[in-house]
Fold these 2 entries.
Entry 1:
Amino acid sequence: MAALRAACYVPRVFTPDAVLIERGAEETPMARRCRERLPDVPFTVVEDRQAARVAIGDDFAAAKRRLVLAEHRGSFLGHCPAGTRGLRCCNYLMMNFATNCPMDCGYCFLQEYLAENLPLTAYVNPGAALAEVARVLDKHGDRRFRIGTGELADSLALDPLTDLSADIVPFFAARSNALLELKTKTDAIDGLVALDPKDRVVVSWSLAPEAAVALAERGTTPIAARLAAARRVAAAGYKVGIHFDPMIEHAGWEEGYRDLVATLAAALPAARVAWVSMGALRFSSGLRRAVRARFPGSPLLTGEQVRSADGKWRDFQPLRVAMYRLVRRYVEEALPDVPLFLCMETPEVWQRVFGAAPLGEQALGARLAAR
Ligand code: SF4
């Protein structure tokens, strides 16, 4: 299985099969950088994003192999979807610089969310996004924001091509009322370590035992390489966030998560860990259909899953609570005093795991933003 994963692993510099550039974006700094860094990849100019969609077709896996460079029109900022229908959230804003991802996790919600808009797209106008963020931060100077880029794309998978981090890290380093979170399953951190985040940037890794990664995370970077990258960014002045999300039940999951937390604690000093989150495997009905169509017999859908109040299917609550409690114990023993929270869970589950109701959204968000 390890050999299979190594063969599928998307390396630090993702090389697309082709690049399609929207007309008018050919001479943007991002397009120039991509051409320099991909000298052997064919570049084609297309009229607009719709033309790119037509050219790419509707094969989800194939779409991940072709990169579209286009301008984003409209807002870049939005609220994290966890703040809906009775779920406890941590008051988080999302900033979208790209859509889709060269990796291919079996549980990824993009399989449903992008079903009508597949192309792996990097937006060539990040300056417009930062101007929008600046307006929000300036208008609410008395509030502290946590802003992430990893909702519709992996935050760093395209960074070796686009150098986006060179735009956004200095922007957030200079802001006192915002914390940027970059979420990734890669080790593409060479651009980051050359920058000074001034303690305003958290680089987060989603982690799972290697056996679960082999089941569910096609093309992602091996856990050892993710942790080595985490160690490097911590040494360069970044805080590190850890997401055990989604937690995946598999044979030997107890030992798997125990060993993973021990390896994490050996790799990173607790003082550099900003937070640890835990979340359950979850699927909307549409995502279940998409996964069944793409991965017939997927082990991710064979467990006992029930429909929650928000319409998503999750592992049976007693199993979720058991997993959260055990991993909570491992984390509290290995990384004392690191904030630990649940993502997309109900107050009832918080109560059963932590023995207390969760903090209010503002209070939880403020606690994390102050790390
Ligand atoms: S790394 Fe993230 S964005 Fe990419 S396929 Fe996996 S879950 Fe989706």
Entry 2:
Amino acid sequence: MKILFEKADILFGDNLDVIFNGYLGIQDDKIIYVGEDKPTQKYDVVKDMSDKLLMPGLFNSHSHAAMTLLRGVGTGFPLQEWLFDNVIPIEDKLVPNDIRVGNQLAIMEMISTGTVSFSDMYVYPVEQIKAVMDAKMKINICRPILAFTPEDFPEKNERFIESLWLYDNYHNHDDGRIRIDLGIHAEYTSTEDSVRAYAVEAKKRNANIHVHVSETIKEHNECKEKYGKTPTKWLKDLGILETQSQFAHGVCLEDEDLNIIKEKGITIVHNPSSNMKLGSGFARISKMHDMGINVSLGTDGAASNNNLNMFEEMHLAAIIHKGNQNDPTILPSKTVIKMATVNGARMQGRLDTGVIKTGFKADIIAIDFNKPHLIPNINYLDSIIYSAQGSDVCMTMIDGFIVYEDGKFKTIDEEQTYNEVREITERLYEVYDGKKR
Ligand SMILES: [Zn+2]
């Protein structure tokens, strides 16, 4: 199948240059042509993209997608109370099918706001994989380990066994759209023995590791009191940073931590909505960027956000640090767009996407600029960051397949998903018609 987009403005190449009124050709899952001149080859489908910008799809680098079913739970509480007193009691009621449905809802929200791939950490991963495969989306998924006491580990720890089983059975599944990471929930939910043994398994597989690190000052300082070192140093000493890793949040990282992160090539996933909503603080993103650390962006789960809209994360990442540091020159639009695209792809181990260029995967979105809040459009990069909304996305293509176009979902039954979500939320919250019984 060959598709040609014509009369399109295109955010092209590693430097995000703009081609005006150009052509973008796709064959199967790859980009085969980008340019100002009409290609001579024949195409099966030609689409007029007047008033639209084609840009690389977005990579949501940290999420707990099925938490769409817990959207807004625990609003107003700090992280520890939010998690242990509000979120976990509802999560305890979740059954495997809920995860499939919660993911369908999350995927609808993500693909309709321009996300083509996400990195996720939650429960019942096989149900999640089903939902992602049906939707023809991309995911890096892990089953994070938890261990609270030395007896929790290793041979008896079901999560540990399941986590490795998932990797060994599903890594690079579905034409590579499904990738498996190893996952550690966090230092404060792990034991040294469990992490040390996990590091050995990660190294054997050369697996990517996804972990929450130094999200709050409480967590960070308690680790220092308990072990005499920061969570980053603790992970390093247990051997966990020998393969590619990604740290979600990194709000309270110290200078020494940043040096380790730089040296080990770790990606920091910045989640500005979640950090602001939970009052966790400002990660030192511009310093990380200046040091050459790979920084990507994530939404976190819908209970601490409350949406999965990467345009909002780009906007917040661009403005909150300028305000906090009294400096409008830091984190320019191009830098932030790269965080949401190629930096996320690189973190996921997907080196053939995140940029529009020939030979790369056709993971592309279109933004409709024929909107009042996008006119006049003086600078595309700034318009994307400061003016555009997730709802301006009018087409999302993943591996050359259009999964969303003009408000229509091509791989998910919208009405059926809403009905299933309603049934589940009635059970989880004992509500009827939106009211508590
Ligand atoms: Zn998280």
